[in-house]
Design goal:
cell membrane; 502 residues; transmembrane; 5-stranded mixed sheet; 2 domains; transferase; glycosyltransferase; single chain; two-stranded antiparallel ribbon
């Protein structure tokens, strides 16, 4: 935790980070401070540190740092249910130095707190591994887990599929020697768990929605946000992306090979091939040797991995590594099982493999955290460049997600959030006579698809900004163009309209 606290940053590094920071000043979902569903527990935790630090971004980063440290301890508790103490300890060390979990613990985002809460859920449910089928203590595990799920949904709603692990204590409570035992004494635990889970979730929804006016306004906002996530900007499997086969390739390349395993990618050093192959060897060992964890442990891991894995593939943006965080502890658990089994046959090889993985992941993680701490993200560099080179009264910027960061750096600058070509010319019309400089980011230009070629002759690149592709998976390269609006209207828009009139 102390290591994480010493490397936190105060950058407004992304749209979501700005949303969260603005929420510490004024909580307003309809102003996207933060966006739906409101993340009340994460924002509340940020308020705990804000009086001490007086910087919204740093306060939220401290929440992540503390959560990252707590998450390591909770994962050790989970691992002790699956592995001997020695191997569970090294599994905890691995999670502590894993590049993605370490990086998430330095950012002003809700991911690290979400992971810690998810691990609290897994640790709670793992108590059911200790008792036989039918033991009524499974019922209290179920009830406790339902309370944790209610908190988890208020930290990161996108982790909702992890609630599937509650099926494990529920089934072990109700099934005895292969037969269902649906007595009133047992079913009451299901009723109590459902009541507490739904009631506590409803309580924070009510609190958040009351701050917005009404519960109905909250759910209308949620419906609109969810529709946009799956049809416009969420980059899910249903937003018109490439084929599912291409998406599967990207999923395994970005999420599994690069993010989870630490494997090589085009701008990475060659030795990261060794990292990915070493982790792959440990995972292969886990499924090769005939001795298994046992049915109960396999089922619990499967209930954790498969529902969330399907959601990650179909319902999340596979370009953003942070979405795979809940699956990284499961991967480490399986890999540590494989290394332990390897040690029973080749002790030196097993310890060498473990030392290699921990060393390489520590080097990779420390490098990422240092870059994140010392170097401005590309989007922040762009915002600062605009501040230093353009008068806010003489420029307008056409952007995508970069808009929020520019606003955080200097709210005087006029921005237009643009996603489609049909409204593009309408947005440019007030500036057709050249009264202002009109800047446009490469993300907007690329989003026009084939029509961007119509715009190319009127663009002049004024600056380019680069940051690390793992730290900024989507906006690690930002191109800033100036549009010759007068010539664009004269030769393209007016010319087309004149031709149609004649």
């Amino acid at each position: 935790m102390l290591v994480r606290l010493s490397w936190t940053t105060a950058w407004p590094e992304s749209w979501d980070a700005v949303d969260f920071a603005l929420a510490l000043r004024r909580y307003d979902l309809f102003a996207m401070q933060p966006h739906f569903p409101g993340y009340p527990f994460f924002i509340l935790a940020g308020h705990f540190f804000l009086p001490l630090i007086e910087n919204e971004y740093l306060s939220l980063s401290w929440v992540s740092a503390v959560s990252g440290g707590i998450g390591v301890g909770l994962f050790y508790g989970v691992a002790r249910r699956f592995l001997p103490e020695k191997w569970a300890f090294w599994g905890g060390v691995w999670l502590a130095v894993h590049p993605m979990t370490w990086l998430a613990s330095e950012q002003p985002m809700s991911d690290a707190m979400g992971l810690a809460t998810a691990l609290l859920l897994w640790w709670t449910v793992s108590f059911s591994l200790r008792w036989p089928d039918g033991d009524q203590r499974h019922g209290w595990v179920l009830v406790s887990g339902a309370v944790v799920v209610a908190v988890l949904l208020g930290v990161r709603l996108s982790y909702w599929p992890l609630a599937a692990v509650l099926l494990y204590p529920a089934i072990r409570l109700l099934v005895v020697k292969g037969k269902w035992q649906l007595s009133a004494e047992r079913v009451r635990y299901l009723i109590l768990a459902a009541g507490l889970g739904i009631g506590l979730t409803g309580a924070w929804i009510l609190a958040v929605s009351n701050s917005e006016g009404s519960v109905m306004r909250f759910f209308r906002l949620g419906a609109a946000f969810t529709e946009g996530h799956f049809t416009q900007w969420g980059d899910t499997a249903f937003t018109g992306a490439p084929s599912w086969a291409d998406r599967m390739v990207e999923f395994f390349r970005r999420q599994i090979w690069v993010a989870a395993m630490g494997g090589w990618y085009p701008t990475a050093p060659t030795w990261q091939w060794v990292t990915g192959l070493a982790v792959a060897t440990a995972l292969l060992a886990a499924v090769t040797f005939e001795r298994r964890w046992g049915d109960h442990r396999v089922r619990l891991v499967a209930l954790w991995m498969f529902p969330y894995g399907l959601w990650l593939f179909f319902g999340q943006n596979v370009e953003k590594w942070r979405h795979i965080l809940p699956l990284i502890p499961a991967m480490i658990l399986a890999a540590m099982w494989g290394i332990r089994r390897l040690a029973e046959r080749r002790r030196l090889a097993a310890y060498g493999l473990l030392a290699l993985i921990l060393t390489l992941h520590t080097v990779q993680g420390a490098s990422l955290v240092r870059i994140h701490h010392e170097d401005k993200p590309a989007v922040v560099e762009m915002a600062d460049y605009v501040k230093n080179h353009y008068d806010p009264d003489r420029v307008v910027l056409i952007t995508w997600e970069e808009e929020r960061v520019l606003y955080a750096r200097d709210s005087r600058y006029e921005t237009i959030l643009l996603h489609s070509w049909p409204v593009f010319t309408g947005a440019l019309t007030p500036y057709r006579h050249g009264e202002k400089h009109v800047l446009i980011t490469g993300a907007v230009v690329d989003g026009f698809g084939p029509r961007k070629e119509l715009l190319r002759p009127y663009l002049r690149e004024v600056a380019r900004f680069e940051s690390h592709p793992l730290i900024d998976p989507v906006y690690h390269t930002i191109r800033l163009y100036e549009i010759d609006v007068k010539r664009f209207f004269k030769e393209t828009v007016d010319g087309v309209q004149g031709g149609r009139a004649s």
